[in-house]
Write a structure and sequence with these properties.
2 domains, six-stranded parallel sheet, 16% strand, Rossmann fold, alpha/beta, 363 residues
Length: 363
């Protein structure tokens, strides 16, 4: 075959059966947050089903990699660092390490690179730098898309993020309905959770209710006072065992703000009546949610972890975000506020939880 012919065939045949015979290696790029990456797993799984013998690679960052490490559909992970995630490292060192990651990807000669996420100049450049023959992504409206040779038009809002990513698979001949999210917990962390439950849970007949209190974005936060009022009412009803989950670290940390202060206040107030489970890593948080029966969560990564693990989920969200980021394909109740989650009242959450506890017992 003449030099460059394989590349031309891939681009020219992107909509017909010839394209399926050309595909050998496919790379997904997901450079943003935890929930975004989890919402990409149905697309990855459908590519695996359509092309069972293809090599599937995934470019992720060091912050979100733990949610995909044990995914059976991925053959190879490429991990790069964002400078803000490595405050102790020299920026030049970070850039050099990332250059080596892209060099490794280019050596692999991927046939297809799929840019997961909304259009951004950085994402477009990353896709171009992979050197893949067919570069698929959402193009910038009314502008030349220099970095994609297969730019697509985004789905009209409000489409769920799972659907938006799945739409990028059209050029690969995939047009089915997306399946469930996929998340595989770490076995060692699961064992820790089970041992902790045996030691701490006094009444195993009641569901274990995980309450995840952390959210990075201010508009998605719920006050500590409201969490305490909710937990107090749950304990009075005696309908569930409460497992408190939070992001580790101080709220004053400018790089990775955590909720140690809020968690300590809640734990001290309900000492001996709830289970406080530290989750210093993503894999420990995943295991804690996997070991729970019902999850109350804000609009953050734990929401999508709960959905991926098939947990009954009560989600506190703003109306705008709920349309595109609600819990995907799991039993859920979404409670919304106009502009800030803290507008949501405790009794609304308690009512939703009562419904979910009934569903748990009936199941």
């Amino acid at each position: 075959m003449p030099k460059g012919q394989h590349s031309n065939d891939i681009i020219k045949n992107a909509k017909n059966k010839t394209f399926q015979r050309c595909i050998i290696k496919i790379l997904f790029i997901r450079r943003d947050n935890i929930g975004d990456l989890i919402c990409t797993t149905p697309a990855i799984h459908s590519v695996r089903e359509k092309y069972p013998d293809a090599k599937i690679g995934l470019l992720v960052n060091s912050y979100n990699v733990d949610v995909i490490k044990r995914n059976p559909d991925v053959n190879e992970l490429y991990i790069y660092e964002k400078a803000k995630h490595a405050p102790d490292k020299n920026k030049l060192s970070v850039w050099w390490d990332n250059f080596k990651v892209f060099h490794q990807i280019r050596k692999e000669r991927y046939d297809v690179a799929i840019a997961g996420g909304s259009y951004s100049p950085t994402l477009a450049k990353y896709t171009f730098f992979t050197g893949a023959k067919l570069k698929i992504g959402y193009g910038k409206k009314d502008a030349l898309n220099l970095f994609y040779n297969k730019p697509l038009v985004p789905l009209a809002a409000p489409a769920h993020e799972v659907l938006r990513v799945f739409n990028l698979l059209g050029p690969l001949g995939i047009h089915r309905v997306p399946g469930k999210l996929i998340l595989v917990p770490d076995d060692a962390e699961l064992t820790k959770v089970e041992l902790y439950k045996k030691k701490s849970v006094k009444n195993s007949l009641k569901p274990l209710l995980a309450i995840a209190i952390s959210a990075r974005i201010k508009a998605n936060k719920w006050s500590t006072d409201k969490f305490m009022e909710l937990i107090d009412k749950i304990l009075l009803q005696e309908t569930a065992n409460v497992l408190l989950l939070w992001s580790p670290g101080s709220e004053n940390n400018p790089t990775f703000p955590g909720d140690n202060e809020s968690a300590e206040r809640i734990s001290r107030n309900f000492e001996g009546r709830i289970i406080a489970y530290p989750t210093p890593s993503l894999k420990s948080l995943i295991a804690a949610i996997a070991g729970s029966d019902i999850v109350i969560t804000l609009d953050t990564g734990s929401l999508h972890m709960a959905a991926a693990l098939g947990k009954i989920t009560v989600a506190l969200m703003t109306k705008g975000k709920a349309k595109a980021w609600y819990p995907w394909k799991t039993r859920n109740v979404v409670i919304t506020a106009e502009s800030e989650v803290d507008e949501i009242q405790v009794d609304s959450v308690l009512q939703a939880l009562d419904s979910c506890i009934k569903d748990f017992h009936s199941a």
